[in-house]
Amino acid sequence: MATLKPTVKSKLKTGMYIVHVLLFWSGHGHNKASNGVDEMAWRGADYGQGMTANKFKETISQMQIGGHRKLLILTEPCFSEAVITPLVGTPGVLAMSSAGRYEQSFADNWSSTLGVWRCDRFSRNIVTHLSDNPSTTYRDLFLYCARRTLGSHVHIVNSANFGNLYTTGPGEFFEKK
Question: What is the C-alpha radius of gyration for the chain, rounded to an integer number of angstroms?
Answer without folding.
Answer: 16
